[in-house]
Every structure is written in C-alpha cells, then in structure tokens.
Amino acid sequence: MTQLLINNTYLITMNKNKDVYENGSILIEDNKIKALGNIDINLIDPDCEIYDAKGKILMPGFVNTHVHLSQQLGRGIADDVDLLTWLRDRVWPYESSFDYEDSLVSSTACCVELIRSGVTTFLESGGQYVDAMVEAVDKTGIRACLAKSTMDQGEGLPKAWQKTCKEELDTQIDLFKKFNNSSNERVKIWFGLRTIFNNSDELIVKTKELADRYNTGIHMHIAEIADEIDFAKQRQGLSTVEHLDNLGVLGSNLLAVHTVWLTNRELDLFRLNDVKVSHNPAAAMKVVLGFASIPEMLDKGIPVSIGTDGAPSNNRMDMMRDMYLTSLIHKGRTLNPTVVNAEKILEMATINGAKCALLDSEIGSLEIGKKADMIILNPHNIHCLPMHNPIGNIVYSMSTENVESTICDGKWLMKEKEIVVLDEIELLEKVKSQAEKIRKKANINLTSSFNIIK
C-alpha cells in the first residue's frame, strides 16, 4: 500500500456540489482517493509521500473524448485542404502505410502530448493496430477507451482496409476479449464505427448489438459534414441521425463525434436516447466542418464533452486551447456572452467527459473512492496573474504551459514538467525518423508557395 498526500492547494473537486477548497489537501492510497479537504492526520502513514502544492491548483484530469493515436506522426500533412481531400489523398494513404512499430511510436507520442496537456483519460476513435495502442497506453500510464476503426464499404478505401462486415466484427470481439480491463483496468475496449460513408447497415446494427452485449461504448463520427447528410438521404431517404434512430443505434453507449449538422428534431432524439457528444472546436474550424449547436445541446441536458481530434486536423492535442475555443466560438455564434461559461467548460472537460467515457462513477471528479486521476496547474506566470477568478483563469488565461504535473491511477506521469514514465528525448528522435519514413512510404509530397531553398 502506497500513499501520496498533496497539501496546501486550491482544490477544485467537480463533485455534484462543485466544492472548491481554497486551501485543501488530498490523500491518495494506491490508485484511489482516500480523503480530501481537511485530512485527518491519523489516516496518513509514516512513509507517505508528501507534496506541497502551495499556490497551485489541483483538479480532476481532463478527459479528451476524441483522439486519433495513429495520426500523431501526420501532423502537418493535411493543412489547408477540404475534408475529402484531407481524408482520401492525405490521411488514408498515410495511415494505411503503417506497421506495428509505426503505430507504437505514433501512439506513444500522442499519449505523451496528452499527458503534457493535462489529459488523464482519452477516447480513441479507431486505428488499425489496437494492440500497439494498448502497449503505448500501458507504458505511459494514461487511461484510455480504445477502438478499431471499422469500415466495410466506401469509396477510396485503401486495399489494406477493405474488410467484410464479419471480419470487422470478429476482430473487435477478439480485441475486447484480449485487452478490455487490461493495464490495471486503465484500458477499455470500445467498438468503432468510422462514418456512415464507410459502414453498412449490417455493420452498424451488429456493432450496436455487440456493444450492448459486452457493456461497452460505440465511437462514431456523426453529422460531420453537409455532404454526409446528403449521402445518407440519397441512400436511405433520411439524415444520418434519423437513419441511426430507425436502426435502433441511438443509445446511452453511443458517443457521437462532431455532430455539426443536426436539426432541432435530431437534438431531441439525442436527448431522448441519452446519446453522448464529443465537441471538437479546433478541428471543426480548421477543416471547415461548421459550428455545432453546443449551447442548445447543453440546455437540453445532453452530455457534451470536448475532444481535440487528431494531429492532421487540429495540429495540437491541447485540451486547454480547445476549452478556450469552445467558450469563445459559441459566444460569437449566438452573440451571447453568457453561454458556455467557464464553469460549464470545466464540466465538459472533466465530469461530462467521464460520462461520455461511461466512467463517471470512477473518474471526472475528485471524490473519496474514485480513481486518483488529477492534475496540478501552476498559475505563476505573466499570462495568468492576477487570479481574481481562478475558474475563469483556467479557461480564458491558461495554456498547456500551466500544466505542471499529471497523475493517473495514483501515479505521477509528469512531475513538475518532467515526463517520468519514459525517456522523452529518445521518443522525440523516434518521432522524427519514423514520421519521415512513413511520409515517403505513403508517397505524400507537400508543396509550398514559398521559395524553399535547399
């Protein structure tokens, strides 16, 4: 049994009462929270590690609900292009050229960037080498819901990805049985559906049946672009969401990502079926998807969380920046400065994220008995001070630079800006060499209007 006591901190719990201790402490025993607030000294063991966080902020770790681990080494290969060019000419050729080692390096690099941005749990929307993703999550100490990207139809699919419905289902069952609840239960295996462009009705329905049977989640891009709605209507006579409703797929274990092109009726279908939502503001603006109706969803009680998406569509796995963007763009869209305020943003990034991960009984808030997933923020720099409103400063003033330490499952992953779970310098060298190898293998040649002199 090991203990860690963090003392003298501005402690944001994100519990139901939204309790905040101006000078609080938290006691971690093994991987769970044993006590918080004002700690009874009789609970503290003689060999307990004590960390003084005076002047700093302690809060739950962020839950990033939409990540592509296998896209991390593709940062910069798909800038300033439309979505279908982004997908078919850049990202698919890139990802389909991967082998296990490529996926491992990419996944590990992504995990480290997430740790540096204060993320303790993330939801992977689907790659091809899930076993490599599991290895990366295991060695970096982070918590994750992982899925295979499943596709059994669609224009432009690389040959390596052309699978039947049965093949995709069988693979996912095997992955679930092999890896779910591994790494001290930090790894959860979900079922993935890429998009309605790439998934037959048979695959969609049977995936829902499997997710219900195995009591796990489904991760799917939904209503991402206007062309998707047109495609669904041409194929089935209904929009994406209404068609999924007819198939019986809408439910509490479905995470709908992007959800930009929804009608008011479809928002009500989400509410009635307790569908979860991942909002990705940076990616939506960069690839010009549009603006999701986030204030309207929140008003209806739909659980909305925040995701960064992958490196080619966002370029940064930076939850702090996406939190800031989430608040600003919806104030601008609605011309209402009171919508999606700082308190709501912190809910979206923590407890709402935990609900979307189907893990809100275990993470998302700092409460006795929950898993010890938390971050320490250091506000002592020129862009954060003064601290008239600490909650507001986290959302509107802070950046990844202020994330000083990250703890997941009771263990330090980053302590005072140093990654302690692996050799980061060695990883950076692998990232550079592996990324260049993959780009050449995928035959992706980038041009520039600038005069590049070699």
Write a structural description.
The chain has 454 residues and is α/β, with parallel strands linked by helices. Helices cover 38% and strands 20% of the residues. It has helices at 83-95, 100-116, 130-140, 165-179, 182-185, 201-214, 226-236, 240-247, 264-273, 281-286, 294-299, 311-314, 319-334, 342-349, 351-356, 390-396, 424-441, and strands at residues 3-12, 20-29, 32-37, 49-52, 57-60, 62-67, 119-124, 143-146, 187-189, 191-193, 218-222, 254-258, 276-279, 304-306, 374-377, 403-408, 411-415, 418-419. Strands 1, 2, 3, 4, 5, 15, 16, 17 and 18 form a nine-stranded mixed beta sheet that branches. A five-stranded parallel beta sheet has the order 10-11-12-13-14. A four-stranded parallel beta sheet has the order 6-7-8-9. Helix 6 links the parallel strand 10 (191-193) and strand 11 (218-222). Helix 2 runs parallel beside helix 3. It is globular, with a radius of gyration of 21 Å.
